[in-house]
Input
Amino acid sequence: MLQLVLHYDGTGFSGWQRQPDRRTVQGVLEEALSRLCAAPMAALGSGRTDAGVHARGQAVGVRVPERWTAASLRRALNAVLPDDVWVASAHAMRDDFHARFSATARRYSYYVGTDEDAASPFRRRVEWAVAGPIARDALDDGARLVTGEHSFRAFAVRGTAPPSDDHRCRIIEAVWHERAGGLVLEIEANRFLHHMVRFLVGTMMDTARGRRPRSDLAALLVAGDNDDVSAPAPAHALFLDTVRYPAELYLPTA
Output
């Protein structure tokens, strides 16, 4: 069992998950694996990323013939994959490793452009250009408020989790940072719901831009539905940065 860590530019993909007649990251990777192994190969990701979302830490589990080592498979894949996908690293894993269910945490970042150059074609594919004043203290207060364990039912697409799911997630860290040309939210949790980061960013930005009361964020954390959440922030400024696994799942390197 091998773990591949992928970087990809989500612009040209209809998300991670394989879809008929659509270009997806999983489809491209499985095509490359099958070509190298001369047999159909499955690639199991740590989770789905939506159309337009980027990654520099998507973890993928693959079972390939024993002749492939982590290093040799990485080299071979990078020779045949398209330019918008790259295998950053590969690791030998225990047989009970599962890319999705073995994960203990995932970390994302979301980029907001606030200067005039954010409208540049070199930035607008990876940043959300936001004009006008932004109350930074509202963003910081919002990040502190959502940190910890809460039900995030109001910040998820309705119907995408089983009815029995309590929608509880534990946000380990949520911090807004200044950066050249704008801001970035770095957020890590034990699990994320569908569109959760984008709903959080969209709502925090609405409070910081004076479009809704700051008290709405606290009310949404106890809401039983997503009727009052802000529209999700655009997908193209979101990056999956890291997927964390227990150290004991990694086999020693030779």
Observations:
- The longest helix spans residues 25-37.
- The chain has two domains: 2-102, 105-241.
- The chain has five helices and ten strands.
